[in-house]
Amino acid sequence: MTSIEDKERSRLFNQDTILHQEADLILEKSGIGTILLKHDYHPVGSFVMKTMTWRDIDFERYDDEPDCDEHWELGKEIAQLEWVSTLHCNNAYRNPESSNESGYYWGIKVAEPESGTIWRIDLWTARREEFERASPNRSVWYQHLNDDTRFYILSIKDRLRDLPEMRRTYLSSHVYEAVLVNGVKNFSDFKAWWEKTFGKFEDAVPD
Predict the structure, then answer these.
(1) Rounded Cα gap, residues 119 and 108, in angstroms
(2) For 128-186, how does the pLDDT look when each residue is reduced to its tens digit (9 = 90+)?
(3) Strands across the sheet with 104-111, in order?
(4) Distances (CA, A) of 39 to 17, 35, 73, 117, 121
(5) What mean pLDDT comes out for the span 112-118?
(6) pTM higher than 0.70 for the full model?
(7) Which three-class secondary structure state does DSSP give residue 138?
(8) Are residues 71 and 156 in the same domain?
(9) Does residue 203 fall inside a structural domain?
(10) Which listed site, 19, 155, 183, 193, has its alpha carbon 20 to 30 Å from 177?
């Protein structure tokens, strides 16, 4: 490993640690963490995998019979919290734009009062098999997650995060699939994998 790569690895791992600590405080101080624990949500994605590059946390909840009324009551409970500035709802069972997803979704923006720092928290409720269908390789991701693959993921996500297409077209799950299933190790290889898998890669980021 070169000294430059070693410094970059240290920077990205440290960035993840800082974001993780900040996320813990946001969940505790905002009151959202208590609500999510009460409603049996569990964290997934970058928060668990230690691959955080931006202020975003994903949670899921298994429900054999997802209920719309219960979903709205949860939103009402969250909306009453002082730090919550935005709530976005999606019924993916009915939304034609959510053809690859199933479940009830809340997208939450939380603003820390003193600094104004904004965190995004995504909540999904669906049947276990619906989550498994949406991310069939998730167990494979965890099997191949180590410090090296974490570094590859962090470095690619760090390059992607400021692209306008990020979160709309390019998702963290794409990075996990590329690195942990297909052996991608850097941003250039990710772009090549994307174009082979999905078509033209739209970006303004040089290799």
Answers:
(1) 8
(2) 999 999 899 999 999 999 999 999 999 999 999 888 777 677 889 999 999 999 999 99
(3) 42-44, 56-62, 118-126, 104-111, 84-91
(4) 26, 6, 11, 26, 15
(5) 93
(6) yes
(7) helix
(8) no
(9) no
(10) 19
CA distance 202 to 196: 13
| Judgement on whether residues 126 and 143 belong to the same structural domain of the protein | no
Counting residues of the chain whose pLDDT is more than 90, the rounded percentage is 81
Please name which of 95, 101, 152 lies closest in space to residue 131, comparing C-alpha atoms: 101
Residue 57 contacts residue 122 (beta carbons within 8 Å): yes
Q: CB count, 10 Å around CB of 104?
A: 23
Residues 43 and 126 in one domain: yes
Q: pLDDT confidence of 21, banded at 50, 70, 90?
A: very high
CB 178 within 8 A of CB 184: yes
34 secondary structure, DSSP code: H
* Six token digits for residue 92: 């993916």
Looking at residue 178, its pLDDT comes to 97
Look up the domain containing 46 and give its range.
3-134
β 118-126/56-62 pair status: parallel
Spatial distance between the Cα atoms of 160 and 156, rounded to a whole number of angstroms = 6
Residue 207 lies in a domain: no
Contacts of 150 (CB under 8 A, 6+ apart): 13, 49, 50, 51
Higher pLDDT, 164 or 53: 53
The structural domain count of the chain equals 2
